[in-house]
Here is the input.
Amino acid sequence: MTANFNTVQGALFRGTITNGNVLTLTVKDVALVTGAETVSYTIPSGATLTSIATAVAAAINADANLTSIGVSATSSGALVSLSSNSVNLTTYLFGKTLNGPETLVIGLPVNGTQTAAIGGTKTTGDVLSLTVYDAGLTGDKETVSYTVVAADTLTTIATALAAAVNADSNLSGIGVTATGVSTVVN
Here is the structure.
């Protein structure tokens, strides 16, 4: 057995979209026949950062040379999570054919699940807020809030706060989602 020193890398698409621009992601690993493999994606009309991330992840997963060394990708919003099971160091490089404003920030740590427990005594009119800090957000943070209503229980408050996170387009755009289970928000 050998150790795998490759951690999951986050790659976040940002910027304004230029139709027709060709985005490339080059994977470098000595296990590849040429030492590198490039996947390309031409931005179609109507593309969004989320659709670009989805298509780039699909292109990586469809590349037989990359899958043969254990490289795979998933996407959530504008974030692509890159994984490599190669015993060699795997690195990633971004490129584009035009000088469009699209960027890809590679090397972001992929965040795990954060947990918020709703507790105490419910008080109608109280406002609960969650703030997400991330470089992919304008101003590097986004706050969602929920105002407690008379019919709420701690469970419905957790569910409503999770729904507020999921309804926020800025958060979904960077792959942040939430679930409310009992009195817990993940």
Observations:
- The longest helix spans residues 49-62.
- Residues 25 and 94 are 5 Å apart (CA to CA).
